[in-house]
Amino acid sequence: MFRFLAILVLLASAATTRADDPLIFKHHAGWVGGLAFSSDSRYLATASADKSVHVLDLTKKKADRVIRGHRDIVSAVAIAPEHSIIASASFDHTARLYNLDSEAVVVLKGHRGVVTSVAFSPDAKWVATGSIDATAIIWDVATGKPVQEIKAHRSWVNAVAFNRIGDLATAGSDNTVRLWRFKEMVWTEDAVFTFPEGEVRSLAFAPNGKTLAAGVRYGVLKVIDLPAKKVVTRKAHQADVWAVAFSPDGKTLATGDGDWDRPGTVKLWDVAKWKKMEVLKTSGEVLSLTFSPAGGHLAAGCWDGTVHLWRVKPNR
Is 23-311 a CATH 3.50.30.60 domain? Predict the structure, then answer.
C-alpha cells in the first residue's frame, strides 16, 4: 500500500545561507498552480495546467505516479493530513478526491465555474473548494456530498484555508478576506477584512491559527491578527503576491510573486520582526508555495512549469 512513512533526505551538505540552491523539477508541460507535501515530507503533489497531478517521491527525485482525469487545467492540490487522499481542483468546474491506496476517485460537482482552490480540514473530515462562481463549498470527504455552500463573496473566490481547529478563511477578487468559525457542524461568518489595494490572491494560516497572511495585488502583503482583528500591511513585492506559506514552527513566512512575462521571487520573512531575511530567485512567476511539515524544505511552483525545492534553515 501507498503509505507516507519515509523521512525525506535531500542535499546532505550544510547550507551556507538560509536556503541552498534549489533542486529544479521539470516534469509538467504547463504552469504549476498547486503544491502539497505529504505529512511525512516524502511526497510532493504538484498540480498543473497540463491537466495532471504528479506525486513526486523526493527520496528518488522522480514522479511516483501521475494522476489524470480532469478535462482541463488542474489549479490546486491538497493532501489530507495523515491520510492517503489527494484533492484536486480544476478549470473543468469540478474537484476530485483520489485515494492513493485504492485508486478510487470521487468527483465533487457543484460549482458553476472554474474551481480555483482546495483545502482539507485538519481532521480530514471536510474539504473546502473555492470558485470563480463567487462561492466556496465545504464537502464531506467520506461521502463526497456538499454540507455547506458559502455565498458571501461578490466575485471570484481565489483561496481557501483551514486553521488547526477547523475554522475556514476565504479570499476573493472582491478585495475581502472572510473568517468562518466552526461550531456545531456549521461555519458562521465571524469577520470580514476589506483591502482597498485590490484582489486577494492567496491565504495561509500560521500554525497557531491566530495569524492569517494574505497576498494581494500589486505586491501587497496583509498580516491579520485574528483575536485582535488588526491588520498589518507590508509592501512585499513589486508584482502580485500569488502565494504565501508559513513554516511549521510559525517563525518564517514565504511569499511569492511575478509578472506573466518575467521570473518571480520568493522572499523569506522573520515573522517576529517582519524583517526580510532572504530573496530566492526562480525561473518563472511563482504561483504556489508550501513548506514541508518537518520544516526543512520549501517548494515553489512556477509559470514555466518548474518546481523549485530548497532546503531551508530554521529561523532561530
Answer: no
